[in-house]
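From the shared-data thread, chain only:
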Amino acid sequence: MLRPRQLEFIATAAREGSTTLARATSRYRGFDKTKAPAAVFVPLVNVPAPDGDGLVAHALFTLRAADMTAHAGEVSFPGGHIDPGETAIEAAVRELREELGDDRIDVEILGQLPTVPGKNGKAVSPILGFLPDVDLTALEQTRSTAEVEAIFTVPLFPTLANPEFEMYREYELPVYHTPEARGVKIWGLTAFVMHGVMKDIIVPALRSQ
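Structure, as tokens:
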């Protein structure tokens, strides 16, 4: 379970950034400025333990609808384009609320992480945050069915702290195979950002207590 004190440690670590994400960006040749920048929200949540004894720290993901024009049927974080006049944080929160179908959902921002290259060179800003009062059953009813096929969560420990690695072109990239994802592999930018968050922020922050 993520308690207030632990969230403070995570927020402090987030301000120091993720070397994993920063290194990847430094190796990249540059963002495509002809493409609108985007932001994704990386939601941390507490959910009931399987045995009903207390709460367990998870990350929340969405399974994109099968008829989406981009990333159809893939696992992702809530996110989308940053509209003119918006900050990355404002865009990530807006997209989170739109996709979950709840414009009043409470959000605690823990930090903005280094911008990373998305598909075709688009600049993507990950925003790490905590959702203190999440009712997953209710969200299944309110979710934007045009964008989201399903909403699910995955335990931070041990699952998200221990990715597998697969070769993609010349790179060894993290992936997650977990039953919560309904048989869909968590890979690409979503897995890469999650791995950076776990390796450089959450694990060191919780270990430092």
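The radius of gyration is 16 Å.
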